[in-house]
Amino acid sequence: MFKSSLVKGICIACITLTAYSQKTTDPLFTIDNEPVFADEFLAIYQKNREIGQQIDPKSPEEYLRMYIDFKLKVREARAQGLDTLENFQNEFRSYRASLAKPYFTDNTVNESLIREAYERMQKDIRAGHIMLELPQNAAPSDTLRVYNEIMKIRQDILSGKTNFEDAARRLSKDTYSAQQGGDLGFFTVFNMVYPFESAAYNTPIGQLSMPVRTQFGYHLIKKYEERPARGQVEVAHIMIAVDPKSDSATIAEAEKKIYEIFERIKSFESFEALARQYSDDKASGRNGGKLPPFGINVMVREFEDKAFSLTVPSTYTEPFRTQYGFHIIQLIKRYPIPSFEEARKELEVKVQRDGRSNLSKEAVLARFKRENNYVEYPKNIQAIVKFLKPEYLKNEWTPENYNRKMNKPVFTYAGNTFRQSDLIDFMLLNQAQDAKSETLEREVWKNFNRFKESYIFSYEDSRLEEKYPEFRYLVNEYRDGILLFEIMEKEVWGKALRDSAGLMEFFNKHKQFYQWNERMNATIVKVTTDAVAKQVEKDLRRRIPIDTIAARANKINPLEVSFERGLFEKGTHPIADMVWGRNGIYRLPDKEDGRTVIVDILKYLPAGPKTFEETRGAVITDYQNYLEQKWLEYLRARYLVTLNQEVFQSIVNQL
User: Fold this and answer.
1) DSSP-derived 3-state class of residue 531
2) How far is CA 211 from CA 183, 220, 268, in A?
3) In 3D, which of 268, 212, 271 has the Cα closest to residue 236?
4) CATH 3.40.50.300: does it fit domain 232-335?
5) Residue 321 forms beta bridges with which residues?
6) How far is CA 75 from CA 27, 630, 634, in A?
7) How many CB atoms are located within 10 Å of the residue 240 CB?
8) Domain ranges of the chain
9) How many CA atoms are closer than 13 Å to the CA of 630, on its beta-carbon side?
10) What is the pLDDT of residues 317-344, one digit of tens each?
11) CA-to-CA distance for 279 and 399, rounded, in angstroms?
12) What share of the chain is helix, strand, coil (3-state, %, to 5)?
């Protein structure tokens, strides 16, 4: 219970912690000379006061006592080594990583990307491209070479030496689009990688972009046209499958079949029934031909164009052919572009999954570099290329004495200098499992970028508690909360469940606290209509079982008769209390929530002791509380707690 409520409460703490982050950091109390600081207590007290002031308000003195007990339990958990267990370490690391994530995200960039994506949702773009391949972690020399090559192509197109379509067919490494002269057809936001998408949306119609770098290489993009976005469409279809390599007789037979179906649709036969009976797309056919809603670039182009040509629900296309066979499409519903607020959540998810989320990371990385005087030394990095041997690409390189030979800096950050030998260490550490590039130069630069980013983010992560007091509070609360859960499970909750003899002994010693009040054995029946109520009352007087009565009455209206029966303790049920003291069958004079209430009172049971099984849950809870109090007495005796009364009084004065 504590662990789950702790996780829910953490977020609320964020609201209040910042206001107290600059308060005193004097020790409030010590446990065996280990300090617990005033600012931590103040933040936790403020959070819990706001959460619980309407339910169970506590004075500062009361909460201090609870907080000391809490810290004693955590101290004991650490003394027992629970914080060293693998399960604890894994869980804590996971919690801390989730808490740290917002500190490595630029929310301004994210918000801008979400709004940009929504604006681009309003338009579909038709463009073509020419692509020259370049690995994502290419060396600077390779990058420059490919850039110059694609700039030469661009200059030739602009000067009229060649046209875009011919150049695409001859030179583009995207062989599929090259066959169409580079034409990619229409696409919209999230259909392409982000740099390509941005260039396509930002290039004027009819113009040629500057070279655009993606993870695939360099691109030239020619923008042909824009149109209002198609949004999404939901359709059903009937398909008669035809292999593209089929002979003319087979194709003609399939075409004849689809037109026979078409004539039956025109004669008002059910589209759904015909799809179930005849469609070769069995997956959709079982559902009456219905397909999930889709936007552009999901279906083959002919199918997409026909689907979006329909504007009135229930209308349908004439038969047409795609590479899969012949189709008839019926429109179910058109989905226009949603409002920004409607689309926001989906856009947030897509932005995080898309490569554009790296822009947030890059913005944070750039800020860290500015704040910590980052300096890079390209010549010294390039020198490692000459030092490496070709064996590195085969995972067989074992250099000697490189610490003395390769001692020049590759980058400095926050006053720390990282040298060539440090980068080589990193490369050797990843040599066996690392995917290799074609050249040593690419390997060096790829590993350098990974090395610097890994260090910078690790360094900043290690300083979060120091830089952000509110983060330190949250981390400490998570850590202590997990430890508290584990030690309570071991010393209290689990012990009470395992100690069956102790549990029974506790029950026998405290039987006077587990007593029944006077009870009524009765059946409470509620009936919707007056006519049925009369019949139900008559049947009850004839001693027909209530199950039989209800089953018969509920055949027509399943909600006609409801009932509850059993032992009702005095003071625990309002209807039982209304008829207390009566016997036999009694109909309440007034209806309850518009329903007639009939009570069949069989007998009364006098007050008396509960059996163990009748009160097992309450006994376990009480036994757990008993064990916890005994354990706390042990902890208070074991550990010396010293309160700084002056500091505590200063906290009270602030509240």
Assistant:
1) helix
2) 17, 5, 56
3) 271
4) no
5) 326
6) 16, 17, 13
7) 24
8) 123-228, 232-335, 373-451, 515-609
9) 10
10) 999 999 999 999 999 999 999 999 999 9
11) 66
12) 55, 20, 25
Calculate the average pLDDT of the chain: 90
Per-residue pLDDT tens digits for 520-560: 999 999 999 999 999 999 999 999 999 999 999 999 888 89
Give me the count of residues in the chain: 655
C-alpha span between 627 and 620 (Å, rounded)? 10
Q: How far apart are CA 60 and CA 42, in angstroms?
A: 9
Phi and psi at residue 325, to the nearest 5°: 145, -155
pTM to 2 decimal places: 0.63
At how many degrees (to 10) do helices 60-79 and 645-654 cross? Answer: 130
Beta strands in 27-112 (DSSP E): 27-31, 34-37
Please count the other Cβ atoms lying within 10 Å of the Cβ belonging to residue 133: 12
Q: Name all contacts of 465-472 with Cβ < 8 Å and 24+ positions apart.
A: 468/103, 469/17, 469/21, 469/22, 469/39, 470/14, 470/17, 470/18, 470/21, 470/43, 471/99, 471/100, 471/103
pLDDT tens readout for residues 406-426:
999 999 999 999 999 999 999
Beta bridge partners, 339, equal none
The contacts found for 110-116 with CB under 8 angstroms, 24 or more apart, are 110/348, 110/351, 110/357, 110/360, 113/351, 113/356, 113/357, 113/359, 113/360, 114/344, 114/347, 114/348, 114/351, 115/340
**Per-residue confidence (pLDDT) for residue 43, from 0 to 100:** 82
3-state secondary structure of 300: coil
Fold equal for 123-228 and 232-335: yes
Sheet with 584-587: strands ordered across? 561-569, 519-527, 596-605, 584-587
Inter-residue contact 536 to 542 (CB < 8 Å)? no
Q: Which two tokens stand for residue 642?
A: 């010293």
In the predicted structure, residue 1 carries a pLDDT above the cut 50:
no
Torsion of CA 207, 211, 217, 223, to 10 degrees: -10
Which residue in this structure is represented by tokens 């919690």?
95
pLDDT one-digit tens code per residue, 396-405: 888 888 888 8
Tell me the CA end-to-end span of the chain in Å, nearest whole number: 29
Question: Distance between CA 471 and CA 21 in Å, rounded?
Answer: 10
Strands 34-37, 27-31: parallel, antiparallel or unpaired by DSSP? antiparallel
Residue of 274, 277, 255 lying closest to 266 (CA atoms): 274
Greatest Cα pair distance in the chain: 107
Where does residue 248 rank: exposed (0-12), middle (13-18), buried (19+ CB within 10 A)?
A: exposed
Q: What's the CA gap between 124 and 121, in Å, rounded?
A: 7
CATH of 515-609, one of 3.30.465.10, 3.40.605.10, 3.10.50.40, 3.30.43.10: 3.10.50.40
- CA distances to 14, 239, 282, 283 from 272, rounded to whole Å, are 55, 12, 13, 13
**CA–CA distance, 225 with 205 (Å, rounded to integer):** 6
One-letter identity of residue 270? S
- CATH architecture type of domain 123-228: Roll (3.10)
CB-based burial of residue 86 (10 Å sphere; 0-12 exposed, 13-18 middle, 19+ buried)?
Answer: exposed
pLDDT one-digit tens code per residue, 164-192:
999 999 999 999 999 999 999 999 999 99
